[in-house]
Structure formats: C-alpha cells, structure tokens
Amino acid sequence: MLGQNVSLTGSEAGSCPLESHPRVSTRTSCLRLQRATASVERLQKLNPNVQVVVNDEYPSVNDMDVEFLSGFDVVCATGCSRSQLQTLNDKCRQAGRKMLAGDVFGFHGYAFFDLLEHDYLTEVKEAVKNEASSQSADHHESGPTEAKRRKEETAKETETKTVENKMTFASFEESFSLADKDKLQKTCEGYFVSNILLAFLDEKGRRPDGQQYEEDVEELNKLRLSLMERLSLAPSAVREDFAQSVFSQLSPVCAIVGGILAQEYIKAVTHKDEPLNSLFLFNALDVHKCGIVERPA
Q: In angstroms, how far is CA 33 from the centroid of its own chain?
C-alpha cells in the first residue's frame, strides 16, 4: 500500500456479500460489516507505516463534499454506479483532486483515470557521438585500419535524459459519453458492456446477483437492446450472451484490473512515467482485444 493516510468509506449497500468479495475475512464477526470496516485490518497489515482509517461520517459517496475531498491527493472509487461516479468526479474536479475508479463484473472490468492537468517525467535514451573513440581513431595509421577508423568515428553511445511532459485528462462524463456515434462504431465491446453494467447499478441499486440470475440476465439484455437501438449499433457490438458472464468477481480479472489501478495510482502520486488516459477496458472473453485503452476524441 502506497501513501501516508488512507481513508475508507463504506458503501450504501450495508452488509458485505462474501460470495462477491472473497478477499474479505470470513470470520463470523465480519458477516454483517460494511466492506470498508471488514477490510481495514488486512489492509493495515500490508503496510504498518500507513494510517488506514474507516470514515463513518460519509456513508455514501454522494454525501462527500468538496471540502472533504480536498483533504486527499488522489481519490479512488470502486463499486459505484454511474451517477455516483459522475457526482464524485465533478466534486473532485471542483476540489482540484485526481480521481481513479474501477470495478469488476465476472469476466469484465474497467478502470477510469482522471488526473486533470498532469505533469510527469519520463526517461528517454538519446544517441550521442562517442567523441573519445573518434579522437583515438585519428592516431591510427592508414591502410588496413581505415575501415576500423571509420567505424569508430561513427560509433554511437546512448545517454538517458529526463524529459518533462504534460497530459490533459477527460472527465468521467466525457470518457463514458455515448454522444459521438461515429466514434462509437469503432469502439470495443468492453466500452458498451461497462456502460450497460453502470446503468444496471443505477437502476437496481446493486450488482448483478447470482441468486437472482434469471431476473438480472433479462434486465441486462433489455439494457443491451436499448443501448444498441439508441446508438444504431451493429448486432455484433455486444454479444447476445454477454449477460451470462458478468456475475460475481473472478480473482484473475480482479488481479489484472486492480493491478492497472495500482500502477496508475503510483504514477499519479510520483509523477513518473506516462499514465494511461482515460479508460482501461478488460474483457476476458475477447482473446484478441482483452485489454484496451480508450481515450475520448
């Protein structure tokens, strides 16, 4: 865990469904706790030098105000609906704070990055002429060593230089916008799946639940058809059986999406290396384009 002070805020859902969150302790004492409270003990053990605090003052991200968010360098959100992420991103931008977000649904996952106007350093290697070799070559006799002398004169070495860069990021609204129909025709399936799942969270107030499998598959397919009709998408834009692959959270997908989030978080706070801008979309069912970085036009 990287940082000095980490604040966790529980979700509106209340209790923690352990079948959806296998990393939470399965002790009886944790069965009815919010995820933040149930996770804090293990999180603290990852780095004893970091202060991990569960914040009970704001039970929902919608309750967080700009002043509260101003107390953090980077805000990272998971398990939120589209409307919650929209509200949180708007407030983070008002506070001038960077925001990351992500989630996993079965074989699918996404990560969102809004680092505002971000300055960062990269290291590049540049070729430089090896002057020492050229000068020493001047003392060589002509004849059989001529070819060697010419080679030494053109010999190159590389040196590493640090370069300052700047990148502008899109807001959550811009990143998940469905307004540009021309661009959407070239967009990967994971982008539409993420939009459908975020809409489901808004509509149902919960994640797809295996105990309500048939009902949720039907609702997800309705959202799929509605999206495709509204955007005039080709039938192949989102596969018909996608809804069967969005239940629970698969550990390998969590590792990939979580690893990307952690990687970009480190870049955000250290200002080193080029960050991803603005979406990472993962679809384990697509063997050719399983991980895609999408950037708004």
A: 27
Given the structure tokens 């604040």, which residue do they identify? 7
How far apart are alpha carbons 238 and 285 in whole angstroms? 12
Q: Which helix (H) or strand (E) holds 210?
A: none
pTM over 0.70: yes
CB-CB contact of 260 with 281 (8 Å) = no
How many Å apart are CA 209 and CA 216, to the nearest integer? 7
Per-residue pLDDT tens over the stretch 231-245: 888 888 899 999 999
- Tell me which residue of 81, 82, 103, 107 sits closest to 244, measured CA to CA: 107
What is the rounded distance in angstroms from the CA atom of residue 284 to the CA atom of residue 291?
8
- Give the C-alpha distances (Å, rounded to integers) separating 27 from 37, 42, 164, 165: 13, 13, 49, 48
Helices (runs of H) and strands (runs of E) counted in the chain: 10, 9
Residue 224 neighbours by CB under 8 Å, 6+ apart: 192, 196, 238, 242, 243
Query: Quick one: 131 exposed, middle or buried, by C-beta within 10 A (0-12, 13-18, 19+)?
Result: exposed
- Whole-angstrom CA distances from 219 to 13, 41, 163, 280 are 20, 37, 50, 25
Question: What pLDDT score does 289 carry?
Answer: 80
Question: Residues 207-229: pLDDT tens digits?
Answer: 999 999 999 999 999 999 999 99
